[in-house]
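Q: Please design a sequence for this.
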């Protein structure tokens, strides 16, 4: 089974999880990713408002078997310099894991964090401590640490840092990895020139079996730029062929592949999601050079 989907909205306006499932289905997706609320703040609706049962029925009808969750950006377990933030991050992440489990998510992607000047070792130690406080060995949801581009002081920009975190967490069977193609490429792992080599290195340091979510994004910047700027499939420096090859590798057959590519302008005032076209491209294993033009024409 090839699980292809994208980030979709989850809010009261669109019908919460039910609306998210319907949006995913409209793109021809059989998986999707949501935030449980705005990624930049702590405002969250009660679980009773998520329309979980209706969403599950809608997903079954549309052939959507699973979905993933993304933790908010405001959770930074590596921040030891801001008084009270570590305690906040632990508490809020614990609640996000519970919310994810309550609505049926199996993986919650987490940016490992940024040390904001305290240093790599201090930041990693803080992440490990935080995850050890958050993780309940009985939880069903795995926390999927995301590969990062390495901009600023963020951690997880190389495979060794992620391995250090995994090794330090007591119940690390409750941890997995979200492999983001743009982030890995921007971090300096050249997927274009040596896809097999990058995956072999990851397998040696961490293990390919740890990858439970793939974020499929092209990159606006060259490898090693540490910029983290996503591009539409085939419109960046990675290119469609490499991303298509990665998506169809048998090792990742059961792994959800999530698009986080930019919305496309259909006029000087309006943008629309490209996910229907990009999912179709990957299913057909064929790059359509004019797909952005088609999005505008179809609007």
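A: Design:
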């Amino acid at each position: 089974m090839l699980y292809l989907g994208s980030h979709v909205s989850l809010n009261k306006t669109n019908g919460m999880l039910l609306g998210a499932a319907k949006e995913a289905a409209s793109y021809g997706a059989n998986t999707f990713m949501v935030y449980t609320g705005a990624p930049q703040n702590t405002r969250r609706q009660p679980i009773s408002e998520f329309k979980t049962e209706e969403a599950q029925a809608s997903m079954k009808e549309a052939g959507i078997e699973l979905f993933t969750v993304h933790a908010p950006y405001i959770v930074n377990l590596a921040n030891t310099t801001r008084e009270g933030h570590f305690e906040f991050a632990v508490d809020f992440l614990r609640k996000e894991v519970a919310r994810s489990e309550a609505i049926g998510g199996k993986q919650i992607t987490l940016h490992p964090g940024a040390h904001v000047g305290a240093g790599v070792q201090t930041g990693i130690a803080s992440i490990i401590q935080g995850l050890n406080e958050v993780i309940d060995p009985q939880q069903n949801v795995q926390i999927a640490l995301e590969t990062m581009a390495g901009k600023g002081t963020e951690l997880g920009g190389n495979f060794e840092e992620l391995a250090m975190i995994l090794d330090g967490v007591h119940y690390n069977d409750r941890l997995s990895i979200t492999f983001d193609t743009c982030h890995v490429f921007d971090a300096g792992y050249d997927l274009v020139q040596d896809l097999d080599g990058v995956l072999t290195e990851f397998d040696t340091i961490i293990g390919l079996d740890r990858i439970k979510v793939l974020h499929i994004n092209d990159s606006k910047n060259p490898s090693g730029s540490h910029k983290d700027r996503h591009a539409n499939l085939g419109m960046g420096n990675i290119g469609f062929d490499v991303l298509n090859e990665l998506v169809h590798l048998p090792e990742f057959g059961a792994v959800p592949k999530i698009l986080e590519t930019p919305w496309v302008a259909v006029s000087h005032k309006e943008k629309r999601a490209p996910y229907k076209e990009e999912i179709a491209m990957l299913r057909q294993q064929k790059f359509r050079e004019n797909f952005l033009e088609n999005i505008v024409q179809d609007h």
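Q: Thanks. Anything notable?
A: The mean pLDDT is 95. The longest helix spans residues 85-103.
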